[in-house]
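User: My advisor, Dr. K., asked me to get a structural model of this assembly before our group meeting. I'm new to this, so sorry if the format is off. These are the inputs:
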Amino acid sequence: MTICHDRIEVGTKGKGLYEITDEVQSKIDKCGVQSGTTTVFVQHTSCSIVIMENADPTARRDLEDFFDRLIPEDKDYFEHSSEGSDDMPSHIRMVLTRTSETVPIANGKMQLGTWQGIFLFEHRRAPHRRKVSITVIGE
Amino acid sequence: MTICHDRIEVGTKGKGLYEITDEVQSKIDKCGVQSGTTTVFVQHTSCSIVIMENADPTARRDLEDFFDRLIPEDKDYFEHSSEGSDDMPSHIRMVLTRTSETVPIANGKMQLGTWQGIFLFEHRRAPHRRKVSITVIGE
Amino acid sequence: MTICHDRIEVGTKGKGLYEITDEVQSKIDKCGVQSGTTTVFVQHTSCSIVIMENADPTARRDLEDFFDRLIPEDKDYFEHSSEGSDDMPSHIRMVLTRTSETVPIANGKMQLGTWQGIFLFEHRRAPHRRKVSITVIGE
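Assistant: The format is fine. Below is the predicted structure of the whole assembly, which you can bring to the meeting.
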């Protein structure tokens, strides 16, 4: 069995989806595992990892707008507001989505569907550098 | 270590939950792993994999109705509408739920609770054939 | 390869987040795996496993309040109500969050970010004993 741990950093510039599919695959290539799984795990509680449609940018904008409507900022019902009006909504968005994705690997490639991409979903407005841990297990 | 990759196809006839627990277990049986994990991963962005209560059909209908109210179709705020009014809501439902589930295996069986079943959650109205990848890792 | 299966039980006293990070780490310590992953899986359909901000209790209260507003109890549109008014909302909360989390392990420790904790998210009002399965795979 081979286990590889690696990391990528994603520079974000405000809310939205940032595709990292190629960066993840390049870490799998470097590891050399042909068959197994990879777990893509983000080490923060104000952004998410999601698999999403990667073809049409309008689908990503509609997704972002939906989350803005579902969890509006500046609501007086938020008690946890010392870190900014987008902080508490960012934690809720994270809980409603995912902290990690586990993807099968066969023949050295992630077995994603045609339209699936892996994205870091940023929930904060200010620029951040996000640490994403990539673990590959297989042979 | 043993790693098995297999696949099932699920024919769907409209929105709703389609149980696949037995099909997943039969792929684990075929693989022969007694101890480890299985990752059930759907290769599409307009349906989901979820674990849900498998006893009472009314619980599944209530769940479907809730999602219809939370993400209504035919809203003019959706820009991504060229593939039908149920397409953009289907991507949002997928992001709010899950693309995969990872389940422990002991004594050759998935360690599900009494009322847990694995379901493909279809978000489109038209019939589809959905590809579900099943990876088993263990010994 | 080493595979360990273990279990913790969490006694809950109503809705809310119950941190289990230390209990999970102690099971990894007991297993002795230095490099790999752990899958924390709850065997119920009316509570969830989530990773959440573990520093500020107000963030957890705001999260709980958000879910109470998003999926209110006692709505007459729920057909599945024989087990109490908080039962159907509990299944919806579970589908909107997660049944399991998979976390990388390096140098014997979970690779959580500074503010990340693992929580059992209870969705029922009555006290429960919740079974959480912990699987460690690695070497």
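One thing worth pointing out at the meeting: Residues 57-70 of chain A form the longest helix (14 residues).

User: Perfect, thanks a lot.
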